[in-house]
């Protein structure tokens, strides 16, 4: 699979918290972690399980910058 996104962070699934419609999938990146909210259907279709390899793919059109006053 080829993607246009340049921010692909490979890691390992460490937690899946399933809700009524969406799941929160935590991926250990080996120096931090990231959590994605995806549909329960997507979790099933991808075959995600704790311990399985997965990549966080980040594609953002905007980045906001803030400072403390």
Automatic annotation (TrEMBL):
Gene3D superfamilies: 2.40.50.100. GO terms for biological process: molybdate ion transport. It comes from the Bacteria. The keyword Zinc-finger does not apply. Pfam families: TOBE. Residues 2-67 form the Mop domain. Keywords: Molybdenum. InterPro entries: Mo/tungstate-bd_C_term_dom, Mop_domain, Transp-assoc_OB_typ1. Signal peptide: none annotated. This is Molybdenum-pterin binding domain-containing protein. It comes from Paracoccus alkenifer.
């Amino acid at each position: 699979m080829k993607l246009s996104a340049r921010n692909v962070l490979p890691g390992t699934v460490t937690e899946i918290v399933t809700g009524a419609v969406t799941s929160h999938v935590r991926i250990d990146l080996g120096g931090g972690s990231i959590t994605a909210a995806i549909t329960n259907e997507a979790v099933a279709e991808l075959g995600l399980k704790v311990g399985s390899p997965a990549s966080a793919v980040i594609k953002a059109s905007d980045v906001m910058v803030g400072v403390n006053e």
